[in-house]
């Protein structure tokens, strides 16, 4: 009698904390590179506040998601919101500089646009990772948090392919979703299902569109 093959165990990438931590650190480092001409805030403000919010997250779960505390998720959401709101402020400063500053200063425009666009991709990747189905703890079967509705419908969840039976998205998957949303200005292979995810993806696409189509295109023309 042939033995029934069991589906392979899922990889542990869905409970890794360190990729998201590296992404946050990269986003905070980028804030130091924001040109002073478009930065209406103290240069140290966002990196300093971001590190203060990141420390308890790393302290509780340095590499993998093992300790689940409700307050940790609120800290993470505040940190992400701070990144997104500050990035939007920088975009406003960049547009203001474009209209009222020296339009011939292409270095400031290009540098500012690149920092804003990359921060936009990283910040919303963390957003998607943190909100989809209630967050990484809720998605992981190893933990007891109640899972919410699916926010992002990945193709792997809709097909029955050998080797993908127990697949769960990791941070890299959400980073790819964010990257494609920022470049295509719309969903690609992964569809947003809930209102909150559609709102997030719409906001990300709008920021990306303004940065690329309005600011970066004008900056390239004046170089």
Structure write-up:
With 223 residues, the protein is mainly alpha-helical. It has one domain (14-222). The protein is 60% helix and 2% strand. A two-stranded antiparallel sheet has the order 1-2. Helix 2 runs antiparallel to helix 3 (70-100), helix 3 (70-100) packs parallel to helix 7 and helix 6 (171-184) crosses helix 7. Residues 1-11 have low confidence and may be disordered. This is DUF1345 domain-containing protein. The chain crosses the membrane at residues 20-38, 44-62, 74-97, 109-129, 200-220. Keywords: Membrane, Transmembrane, Transmembrane helix.
Summarize the structure.
This is DUF1345 domain-containing protein. This protein has about 220 residues and is mainly alpha-helical. Helix content is about 60%, strand content about 0%.
Question: Helices and strands in order, then pairings?
Answer:
Elements: H1 18-32, H2 45-60, H3 70-100, H4 106-131, H5 136-139, E1 152-153, H6 171-184, E2 191-192, H7 195-222
Antiparallel strand pairs: 1-2
């Amino acid at each position: 009698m042939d033995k029934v093959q069991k589906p392979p165990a899922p990889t542990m990438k869905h409970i890794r904390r360190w990729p998201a931590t590296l992404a946050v650190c990269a986003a905070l480092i980028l804030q130091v590179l924001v040109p002073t001409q478009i930065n209406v805030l103290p240069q140290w403000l966002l990196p300093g506040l971001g590190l203060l919010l990141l420390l308890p997250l790393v302290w509780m779960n340095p590499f993998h998601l093992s300790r689940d505390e409700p307050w940790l998720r609120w800290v993470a959401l505040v940190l992400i919101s701070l990144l997104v709101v500050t990035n939007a402020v920088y975009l406003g400063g960049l547009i203001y500089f474009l209209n009222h500053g020296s339009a011939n200063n292409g270095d400031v425009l290009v540098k500012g646009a690149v920092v804003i666009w990359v921060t936009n991709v990283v910040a919303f990747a963390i957003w998607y990772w943190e909100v989809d189905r209630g967050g990484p703890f809720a998605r992981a079967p190893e933990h007891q948090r109640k899972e919410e509705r699916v926010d992002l419908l990945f193709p792997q969840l809709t097909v029955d392919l050998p080797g993908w039976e127990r697949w769960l998205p990791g941070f890299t998957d959400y980073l790819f979703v964010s990257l494609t949303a920022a470049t295509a200005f719309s969903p690609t292979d992964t569809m947003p299902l809930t209102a909150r995810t559609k709102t997030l993806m719409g906001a990300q696409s709008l920021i990306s569109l303004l940065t690329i189509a309005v600011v970066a295109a004008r900056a390239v023309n004046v170089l």
